[in-house]
Amino acid sequence: MTTLTSIIAPTNILTPSSSATVTNKTISGANNTLTVCLANDVSGALPVANGGFGQSSYTDGQLLIGNTAGSLTKTTLTAGTNIAITNSGGSISIAYCEPIVYNNSAWGWGRNCFSVTPIGQLGDNTAVNKSSPVSVVGGFTDWCQISASKATVGHSLAIRTNGTAWAWGRNSNGKLGDNTTVDKSSPVSVVGGFTNWCQVSAGGQHSLGLRTNGTAWAWGDGSDGKLGDNTIANKSSPVSVVGGFCDWSQVSGGYKHSLGLRTNGTLWAWGYNAQGRLGDNTTANKSSPVSVVGGYTDWCQVSAGYAHSLGVRTNGTAWAWGCNSYGKLGDNTTVSKSSPVSVIGGFTDWCHVSGGYNQSLGLRTNGTAWSWGRNYRGVLGDNTTVDKSSPVSVIGGFTDWCQVSAGSSSLSVAVRTNGTAWAWGGGAYGAKGDNDTTNRSSPVSVVGGFTDWCQVSAGTYFSLAIRSTAT
Question: What is the reported pTM?
Fold first, then answer.
C-alpha cells in the first residue's frame, strides 16, 4: 500500500506541471490547490478537460483526489491536520501549479470629443476619437465592472476589485462624483472614501452605485428626481437613495430615470416618468423609489433604456414598459405602456436584457442573442435595416453569446464565451472598434485579436470593455 502524507502548502514543492512519487509525507497547511491522481487507475496522462476531474476550477485549500477520469473526491485541508490517501497498488503522483493570476485591464473606443469640445470619456488622457481599442490610463490591473453613459456627451464609471469607484469624461452637474464639475479625461476616484462599491451604472446625466452593504447611492443631475434622494437638486458626490433599504442588488440608470432591484425580487423606479417608463402605472415623476406594478417578487435582472425599461423574471420571461416608439418594448405594438408587458415569442429562457436608445437586446440561456425596436443603421444585427416590434435573432449562427449591451447612437456590442468582442450598428467615430466608421447590420469583430474580453458596455458613439488576461 502506498501512502501520501505531508504536502506543505503554499510552498511550491514541485515545479509547475511536473510530477513525482511521494511516500510517507505529512500534510500540514493548505493555501493552494493540489491535484492528486492514482497512477494505476488512469491510463496515460490525466485528462485536462474540465480540470481533469470533471470540474472547471479548484478553490484554494482543497485537495483533489481522482481515482478514475471523471471521479472526484474533495477534501478541505486545515493547517496542522494530517490526511492519509491510499490506493491498493502502484504509486501516487501529485502535480502542483501556482494559482492563475489575472490582469483585468479597461479599454475604450469610439467618440472621445464632441464637435470641438473635449470629452475624455475613453479615459486615455486624450480627447481624440479612436476607432480601435485603447487602454484606460492609470496602470490599474484590477478593474471588475464598467459602465458607459448613453448621454450625448457622456461619462464613464468603473469599479476596481479593491472596492473603489472611479469615473471619467463629462462632469456636468457633478456626475463623476468627485465633488467638482470639471471634466476628466482619465479616471478619478468617486469621493466618500468607500471601499465596498460592487456595481455602478452610468445614466444619461447621473450616476448610480451599489455598495456591498446593500445600500444604493446616486450623484449628478437631480432634476426630475432621478437621484432618488427625495429632491431635484444636483449632487457632485454620492447621496443615499431614500427608503432605508439595505438589500439593493442591482441598479440601472436610463437617460432621465433609474431602476433598482432588491434581493427580495421586487423592482423599484424613480425619476422622469414620461410614457410610463417607471412602470408604476402613472406618468408622474417620482423623486424617491416607487414599486413597479404587477406584484412580482421574482425579478432577477433589469435595464433602463433611454426612455423605456426592461426586466427579466426568474421564470425566464422578459418584460418591458415605457416609450414604445419603433416597437422597442417587443410586444408587437408601438403603443407605450406604463406597466410591464411581456416580450412576445413565448420564450421562458431569457437571462439578460439591455435597453438602448430605440432598440432592445436580449440573451437566452441557449446562448443566442436577440433584438427588437428601431433598426437604424442595422443596430438590430439581423442583416436588415427594417424596424422590428418583436424579437429577431442576431445573425451569425453563434450560440455562445454571454453578454450584450445596447447603446445610444444605434450601437450594439457583445461578448462571446470564447472571449471575442463584437459590435454592429452605427460606425460613426469608430464606435464599433473595428477600425472603420462604416455602419454594419451584422456583427463584426472588435479589432486587436484579443480573446480575453469579459465585459462590454455600449454608450453613445463609444464603447467600454474589460479584458481579463491570465498572467
Answer: 0.83
